[in-house]
Structure formats: structure tokens, C-alpha cells
Amino acid sequence: MAKKRTRANGDGTIFYNEAKKLYIVRKKIGRDPETGKLIFKEFSAKKREDAKDKMDEYMDQHPEYNPDADKRSLETYIRKFLYEIKKPAVSPKTLQRYESIYLTHIKESDSSKNFCPFLYSPMPEIITSQIREWYGSLRVSESTLKLINIIIKGSLTLALEDRIIQYNPAHAIRMKNEEPDEDDLTPVLAADEQQLLIRELNLNDPVHRLLYFILATGLRLGEALCLRWSDFKIINKEKHVVVKRSLTRIKNDGSGVYVDLEKEPKTKASKRSVPLPKKLVDQMSSWEHRSEDLVFPNPEHDGKTYIFNKTPARHLARLCRQAGITEVTVRGLRHTFATRHFEEGTPIKTVQKLLGHAKFETTMNIYTHVMPDIKIRDAKNIDKFL
Asked: Which GO terms describe its molecular function (predicted)?
């Protein structure tokens, strides 16, 4: 049977493919800049309406392909910024964070908490005071406001490059520089609390082994979750763990289901080798393994899949309550690792390399405020000079 083609205004070409038993929408989305040939995109589904909905959703996300979209609106350039500039440059997880900020705080929708009042305005009409007034009305955290500003400012910069506007009205707006607030920093364990936690650990449990490993090496949770036994090397006669990948959980665009993906670490500095303490090496000698197996397999799935990334946090919270100590997060174990180094006088530059920080300032800003007893000890050191 021949393909039946129909076409409505703005629908593209819709036809039913007997062989595939699917409705297919074929839509022109542009031209190849080198050859000038037309570029088409197809959307398929068992129902005609579903195929059309897929096309509409795609066109909504890519208004630069939509001849009816206002080419000069901020909304058009936000989508260009997200999908042409950010998408190729950032990880899928980071892109989802930007999308979440856009849908929750900028775009008008059923789920939005805020709405940009000039989102659909022609950009030449947007002025700095409008943006500043809107930012001032938002009841969001400083970090969320910074992300909103990144999207708004970046989109306007694109418009400036395209000569849609003569100046960027967001350029004059300065975000508040956040200094670490000691009361808001990630809690860490004191040395005696660390020992109490270790006594609570059952090192026959892969989740408890994972917590112990992070406490001993300072690895990020995502780095530790996807470690394999082949990632351990002998360097200068000492055993090291070589960090060369990280696990991230992102939402699948098609199904909406979250999936685990291994990827390269975000920065060059994150690719590193970390020496293992002797007590950790001794403990690990009794852990059964094969070269390509996960070091910390999920005990609930025959040991062949990753531990669910929220499981360690639940175990750790319970262990802290049992031990009667400060309740810390898994990230707090990483901070605790750094704290022990600072207490023992390890140079900050060395701690930076162990933690895999790309910038020295990151280590300084976070970890110079970790423990009150370090400050008291250091203050008392001045006595000998007085």
C-alpha cells in the first residue's frame, strides 16, 4: 500500500508507513550552510497525534527552526543559548540543571515558580533596570539567581553578536560574591567522631566499604561508585587508585527514566592518582575481586550494577545516629579527609591535588574554615612570639 501523505499548515508532511506501522512527520528545519541543501527531520509514532506532538515539542525547543517564532525575543535566544552553546559544551547533567532553572524560574508553565516578565519582549526593548527589578523580586537562593543570570546574560550576548541589540543590558548587573559562610559549610567529623564512625562500619557490606574508602581517599562519590579493580596501580612502590572516570545520573530525554552514565572527569585536575593509606590497603586485601569488576557493586543486584547514588547517604545518616556523632553527608566525608590533612600540616597545594580541584582557590575557600580547633591551635602558636 502506498504511503498516504497529508499536509496542514505548519504540520510538515505527515504520512503512514505500512512497513513500519507508524505515522511519520517530515519537517523542514533549515539548510546545510555548506551545500545549501534542505535539512529535514522525521518524527514517528503509532498515532498521528503523537507524531505531531513530538514534532511540536522539538520545534518548541528549537524556535530557531520555527518560521513563526519571533527571532528578536529573549525566549528565542535563551533556547539558542541552551541548545546551541551550552549543550555541546557541558555534561548532560549540567544541561539538565540549566533546563530546570529555565522551566522553573524563567518560562511560564504549570510547574514554574517564577516567570520572566520580558521573556517574549523584543530584546531591543529590554533595559538594565527591568532585569535588576525582576532579579530583586525573586525569592531564590544566591546560587539559583546566579544560574538565572548566566542564562539571561548569555542569551543577550548571543543577540549582541547577531546585532539584534546594540548593547547587553545584563552586562552592568553584578552578582553578589558569595564568601563561604562558616555556619553554612558542609559539616565534617572531628577526629574522635571519625573513629566512632569507623567502629560502626561493617566492612563486609559494599556500601560501608564505599564510605570507608571515601573517608580514606577523599574521592568524590561519583568517582568511587564506578571504580574497577583495574584502576589500582603500584606507583613508586606504593599502591594508588587512578581516577579516570566518574558516574553521573541523568534523565533520559526519550523515556524520562534516570540512567547511570560513566564519563570522563569534568576537569583535567580530576584525573589523578591518589595514594592509599596502609590500613585501607590491608582492609582491601580481603575483598574478593576480578580485574574488570566494580569495587563497590550493588549487593541488591547480584553485584553487577552500581550502588544507587542515594544509598550511601541513607546508610551514612543512620550510622551517624547510631554512633551519636555529627550527622554528615557523603561529601562531608571528603571534607573530613581534607580536614585531617590540614590538621597534620599537609600543604594546601598537596590537598588540592589529592582532591582533584582545578583551582587552588577552591581548596582555599572551602577548607581553610573547616575546624574551630585548628583556628584555636593556630592562634595559640602566636604566643611564643609575644
From this structure: DNA binding
CATH fourth-level superfamily of 191-383? Intergrase catalytic core (1.10.443.10)
The radius of gyration of the chain from alpha carbons, rounded to an integer in Å, stands at 27
Write the burial class of residue 76 (CB in 10 Å: 0-12 exposed, 13-18 middle, 19+ buried).
buried
Q: What are phi and psi of 290, to 5 degrees?
A: -130, 155
Task: Say if residue 68 is exposed, middle or buried (CB neighbours under 10 Å; 0-12, 13-18, 19+).
Answer: exposed
Enter the C-alpha cell of residue 75. 525566549
The CATH number fitting domain 74-161, selected from 1.10.150, 3.40.50, 1.20.120, 2.130.10: 1.10.150
Q: What is the pLDDT of residue 65?
A: 63
pLDDT band at 130 (very low <50, low <70, confident <90, very high): very high
**Cβ 57 vs Cβ 43: under 8 Å:** no
N-term to C-term CA, the chain: 98
How is residue 18 written as a grid cell?
505500512
Q: How many CB atoms lie within 10 A of CB 175?
A: 13
Residue for cell digits 539571561? Answer: 152
Instruction: Give me the phi and psi of 376, to 5 degrees please.
Output: -65, -45
Torsion sign over Cα 333, 334, 338, 344: positive
Residue bearing cell 527531520 = 41
The amino acid at residue 164 is I
Contacts of 248 (CB under 8 A, 6+ apart): 91, 92, 93, 222, 260, 261, 263
Residue 53 corresponds to which cell in the numbers above? Answer: 506532538
Q: Specify the pTM.
A: 0.62
SS (H, E, C) 330-344: HHHHHHHHHHHHHHC
**294 three-class SS:** strand
Residue 104 makes CB contacts below 8 A (sequence gap 6+) with: 111, 112, 113, 114
Q: Which stretches within the chain are classed as H helix?
A: 48-61, 74-80, 87-89, 92-101, 128-137, 142-161, 191-200, 206-217, 221-225, 278-284, 311-323, 330-343, 348-355, 360-367, 372-380
